[in-house]
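Field log, afternoon session.

UNIT: design team B
ACTIVITY: writing a sequence onto a fixed backbone
BACKBONE:
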């Protein structure tokens, strides 16, 4: 499920960025009727899918049966230490590593909290810009829809200095999201290449190939050899018992 959400989010971010740039500054002329209307509609639908995925991820962070990422964000001494050590490892180009990178990474969890905060900001500012297009506060589904949007997003105009401020914040946040994507790709490359955690392979194939130490190999070999020896002894015992049963004592 995480892989599906990951690639759907990646596609939605790219679609929203491309269509948003066109809305801000139409950079090509297409011989398609209502090209701007289609662009706005695609932008809105992709943004809705992205926002819904954020809600799903938030639910999994809190209530997942397998691994709750919220545990990596609790202000405990262990999480704080792992967070700082992961940051220092990247900052010092792997000259310092004093944590177990195979365990969940609080720094990575913090990265995604930042992304969700940016997406939520895009949600409110985008809906405010969207509701401005309704004439007379009416829509095809009735007046309740523009009224609901005004009720939930009008605070952005007061905080950001009017419609122009909302538009600038929405536009600037898009560049922060794209910068986050670049940082995310670099960090996952770091975890895969430097820490040997195969995080990139997880998103493509669904499997993680972790390095195995020589001690673990020796332990597995000894365990396998012991199991084979026990199996051989058991077979010999069963054969002997069978032969004994076949002897005519008379």
């Amino acid at each position: 499920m995480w892989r599906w959400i990951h690639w759907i989010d990646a596609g939605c971010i790219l679609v929203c960025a491309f269509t948003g740039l066109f809305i801000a500054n139409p950079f090509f002329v297409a011989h398609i009727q209502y090209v701007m209307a289609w662009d706005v509609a695609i932008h809105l639908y992709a943004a809705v899918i992205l926002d819904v995925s954020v809600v799903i991820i938030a639910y999994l962070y809190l209530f997942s049966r397998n691994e709750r990422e919220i545990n990596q964000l609790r202000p405990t001494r262990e999480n704080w230490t792992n967070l700082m050590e992961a940051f220092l490892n990247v900052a010092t180009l792997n000259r310092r590593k004093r944590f177990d990178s195979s365990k969940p990474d609080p720094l990575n969890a913090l990265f995604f909290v930042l992304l969700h905060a940016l997406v939520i900001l895009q949600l409110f500012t985008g809906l405010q810009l969207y509701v401005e297009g309704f004439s007379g506060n009416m829509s095809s589904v009735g007046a309740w829809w523009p009224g609901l949007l005004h009720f939930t997003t009008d605070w952005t105009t007061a905080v950001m200095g009017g419609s122009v401020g909302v538009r600038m914040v929405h536009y600037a946040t898009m560049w922060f999201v794209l910068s986050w994507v670049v940082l995310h790709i670099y960090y996952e490359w770091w975890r895969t290449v430097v820490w040997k955690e195969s995080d990139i392979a997880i998103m493509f194939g669904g499997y993680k190939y972790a390095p195995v130490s020589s001690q673990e190999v020796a332990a597995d070999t000894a365990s396998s050899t012991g199991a084979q020896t026990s199996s051989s002894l058991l077979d010999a015992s069963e054969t002997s018992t069978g032969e004994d049963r076949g002897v005519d004592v008379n």
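LOG NOTE: The domain at 2-210 is CATH 1.20.950.20 (Fumarate Reductase Cytochrome B subunit).
NEXT ACTIVITY: expression trials, pending approval
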